[in-house]
Design goal:
This protein has eight helices and no strands. The chain starts with 14 loop residues before the first helix and ends in a 7-residue tail after the last helix. The relative contact order is 0.13.
């Protein structure tokens, strides 16, 4: 199937044109989208956990289906559980996710991925540079893995190690 970024007029296109266009979007385009969406979900769960640890009745807040990622990041920042670098990176990730959600032609850029960096150490910088030589899909995978690790560290700091007791 030929890769293209053309928009299609759903009102005038034939069934075959719409089918080809749908296959283009669903199968061939944006393989990095999966890692962006999954990373977004993981980081959202970390943010929810950080907020919940500060609430007496978190179910009363999160039980509402209208709590957006943006609201969660703002609240976590206001509560002081989301440091500024994490706040900025979460906002950047949400912006990337929204770009995919609202623009079928969105193409992830290295600049967007660079906005996800939080105090990378030398080995992370080298791994990311190597991934960039392989393309945006591999760079996205590495950047979001590192971002996830950074957010997971916030959970360790907020609650310390946990042990299960039998």
């Amino acid at each position: 199937m030929q890769k293209s970024s053309r928009r299609i007029n759903f009102a005038t296109a034939t069934h075959d044109e719409l089918d080809e266009y749908g296959m283009q979007l669903l199968v061939w385009d944006a393989p990095e989208l999966s890692v962006v969406l999954k990373g977004h979900l993981l980081i959202e769960q970390v943010i929810e956990t950080l907020i919940s640890q500060r609430m007496k009745h978190p179910d009363r807040f999160f039980g509402n289906q209208g709590v957006t990622f943006d609201l969660k990041t703002n609240l976590a920042s206001a509560l002081g559980v989301l440091p500024e670098p994490h706040f900025s990176a979460a906002k950047a990730l949400n912006k990337i996710r929204n770009a995919y959600a609202h623009n079928e032609d969105h193409k992830l850029t290295f600049d967007e991925l660079n906005s996800l960096k939080i105090r990378w150490i030398a080995i992370q910088k080298r791994a990311y540079a190597a991934a960039c030589t392989k393309g945006v899909e591999e760079a996205a995978r590495i950047a979001i893995i590192f971002l996830n690790w950074s957010f997971l560290k916030l959970l360790q700091k907020s609650s310390g190690p946990t042990t299960k007791q039998s």
